[in-house]
């Protein structure tokens, strides 16, 4: 079903798109336009609104390794095979237009286009803090401590209410959000008022995907005013919050890099950059925790294996006993939980379906695995979609099922077609930290609490409009009850 705002936007796009359509006589005619699911003028927009995974799987089946699609005024050459895509990602004729995306989604000023030198500086920080163990270690340790603290605080306040042993009703998504939001935010950004950010985050995140579509400006100010306001409020709070206590070194170094460019980088834009970083730290990890818990809790065999290995590797530190000398779980202990790791990788395979985009910046050729050579014109957009690979039965037998030990002892590099975090230069730099967060959070929630679903049969779908932008949340929350365990079993 299409929501009201979607339908309105659809009508608007239809009206305005006519102005944008130009015929492109010199395009490579050997790349077929996918007629399946397409309507005049708007192209595949409706099919995409309904179920983009379905339409792209079907187009792949009908048109093979390369086909064109259109979403209103935007045209893409789809390259479904991951091997073909990797050849494109490696070639400098095809550029990742990250700054342009930042302008659309987070409202960055176009001043960034004139200052590509910020890129290598931020990249250096990714390498230093996010891509090597020494950099990650303190952030993971701090996250574990903050997570533990959040759970203890909740337990203490329940005890004050004399309801520590009672079942508490909530939604699993709401629960995942609540458990992750604060620990993650304070571990990265230090002691800040997370409650003030939370409401704005929720509003903006809820409509995040619309900011990818280059609607005319007035469409946003008319239909997404609340979200635009939330986005600018986030920017302002970060602007005023530039040196919190106990922030991670990663965040501190990042601010220092921005500061070193202050000759052209205004404070306001720094607020937007931090907003983007903040969104990226939560927008996909919250749904990842939700889906991981959802799949694991409903699979008794998975749950049993995971609980057994947690008993071995992750000591049960009573929530009542911790003090300043407590040794919390270390990253090494968390690493040892192989079944949990596999189950989370498998969850992300099922629900993590990003689009990867490249723009061709000079006329180029690329050869496909099927032996064809295709010509791509400067200005054309190319896209790869993880949803097609992740459901390819040849790569992942019984692709629609959650098989918790599918990835047991497999390394990311050894599984072709598995790219939930993208690939090449635009690969998500926070993927290692994100995995630690998801894994730690899920481990803690399984270790310290027990759950019951109100209705085992209710299986939510992914929120359709959000599919393609990382990990989509469910289209509705799943009612559960939970309570704190009294001991480790
Ligand atoms: C979308 O289509 C895929 C493939 O047909 C299917 O597995 C999935 O359940 C569909 N999603 C929704 C939300 O209907
Ligand atoms: C404890 O009770 C108070 C008042 O009834 C309520 O506002 C609060 O949310 C409760 N705390 C928890 C953690 O349930
Ligand atoms: C990239 O594409 C161009 C244009 O098709 C081609 O000439 C060049 O050899 C490719 N470079 C690499 C590294 O594959
Ligand atoms: C599974 O996740 C871990 C990190 O938690 C990663 O190191 C490993 O490579 C992943 N495996 C696959 C197949 O992606
Ligand atoms: C856990 C931790 O590092 N806490 C510190 C947070 O910042 C205040 C003020 O700088 C310190 O006093 C705490 O020790």
Automatic annotation (TrEMBL):
Biological processes per GO annotation: bile acid biosynthetic process; cholesterol homeostasis
Keywords: Endoplasmic reticulum, Heme, Iron, Lipid metabolism, Membrane, Metal-binding, Oxidoreductase, Signal, Steroid metabolism
UniProt binding sites for substrate: 284
Primary subcellular site in the record, as a coarse category: endoplasmic reticulum
Family: Belongs to the cytochrome P450 family.
PANTHER family reported in the protein's UniProt record: CYTOCHROME P450, CYTOCHROME P450 FAMILY 7
Protein name in UniProt: Cytochrome P450
Organism: Adineta ricciae (Rotifer)
